[in-house]
Design goal:
single chain, Uridine Diphospho-n-acetylenolpyruvylglucosamine Reductase, domain 3, Alpha-Beta Plaits, 3 domains, 8-stranded antiparallel β-sheet, 5-stranded antiparallel β-sheet, 11 helices, globular
């Protein structure tokens, strides 16, 4: 156990003895996510570094505070990558925060999510115990899969001190195609293309343009691009700076994300009909992830609770969920409400891992 791990355990022990709540802080790139943070800061940024990397086995073990840039640099030396395309919303983002917030980039439907690639974790729970779950192979799980439970928990169950991840080789070739389409046509086209055998690795729509990324063997990518140039609605052209476009989309550096209105994230059935057509949209993940700027339902007299309820109804009609990703009232609920059975399960897990409610109180839900 490292000295920093021992320091973190001591801080948790002291907080528990003094009945103080703790706000887990890494590199602070995702501070805007979830409800407003509460409690004294416990910083894991110093608990960083690569513990073990086996390129031949495609397995990487790192400490929770390790910056994504450090991980990506190590993988690049062996022409490997994190397949879930993790976003970096600030100058630096940590791998522990990426897992805790369950963040994956444009390639998520094709390359998997961060949750899918987690093999094992080490966790400091609310009793100041260092626990280990999973291992370094995909089948090393018996009983409840606690490692993947940390994905999207927003630190509610403990401090992620270490995690093992499956990594993948980088594709030999990547190009981006772009064509003019409206939103409804783009959703239809993305779903049709995703259902066929081709090297599609990302698909999004913005400002009446459909962007398609092809990744894989050079022969397959070139052949598909040549075919799509003549078959895509309105024709398709290669985007000169395609890599930069997907990077800016992943990290929310596109102009769409710089606007000041609240940003809503819809996770839907990918072929759901386009709604609020006059609103400001960016459609990603082949139609399954849709970003909405502002709220067509909002007025000066509409409460945050009512707006959230109305947005949830819209999302459920499209077989999905919605969250207030950025901006808006962060003291109210910002994630889609849970049915009573799942709410009870969440609370039981919280009680098991963090019986005194030390970690990130209310960050995920007011009641957790």
């Amino acid at each position: 156990m490292s000295d920093i791990s021992l320091e973190l355990i001591e801080q948790v022990e002291n907080a528990r003895a003094e009945s103080r709540q703790l706000n887990i802080v890494g590199l602070n790139s995702k501070i805007f996510l979830g409800r407003a943070a509460q409690g004294d800061a416990i910083n894991i940024a110093g608990h960083s570094g690569i513990v073990d990397y086996q390129p031949i086995e495609l397995v990487l073990t790192v400490r929770g505070g390790t910056p994504l840039s450090e991980i990506e640099a190590a993988l690049e030396e062996h022409h490997q990558m994190l397949s879930f395309d993790p976003p970096s919303f600030g100058a630096e983002s940590s791998i522990g925060g990426t897992l805790a917030c369950n963040q994956s980039g444009p390639g998520r439907p094709w390359g998997g999510s961060v949750r899918d690639m987690v093999l094992g974790t080490r966790l400091i729970n609310g009793k100041a115990e260092q626990l280990r779950f999973g291992g370094q192979v995909m089948k090393n799980v018996a009983g409840y899969d606690v490692s993947r439970l940390q994905a999207g928990a927003m630190g509610a169950f403990g401090i992620i001190t270490e995690l093992s991840l499956k990594v993948l080789p980088k594709p030999a070739s990547t190009i981006t195609m772009v064509c003019e389409l409206d939103a409804a046509e783009a959703i239809q086209s993305m779903n049709q293309l995703a259902g066929k055998a081709n090297p599609l690795s990302a698909a999004c729509w913005l400002d009446n343009k459909l962007y398609l990324r092809l990744s894989g063997a050079r022969s397959a990518v070139d052949a598909t691009a040549k075919c799509w140039q003549s078959t895509l609605p309105g024709g398709g052209d290669r985007l000169e700076h395609g890599t930069q476009f997907w990077s800016d989309l992943r990290d929310h550096q596109l102009a769409f994300f710089s606007k000041q209105q609240p940003l809503w994230r819809f996770s839907l059935q990918s072929n759901a009909e386009h709604f609020f057509p006059e609103a400001d949209w960016l459609i990603d993940w082949g139609g399954a992830q849709r970003w909405l700027r502002g709220s067509p339902l909002e007025s000066d007299s509409t409460s945050s609770v009512l707006i959230m309820n109305q947005m949830e109804q819209v999302a459920m009609r499209a077989n999905g969920q919605v969250s207030l990703f950025r901006g808006g009232d962060r003291s109210a609920e910002v994630f889609h409400s849970q049915p009573s059975a799942l709410k009870t399960l969440h609370q039981r897990l919280k009680k098991s891992f963090d019986p005194d409610g030390l970690f990130n109180p209310g960050r995920l839900y007011r009641w957790l």
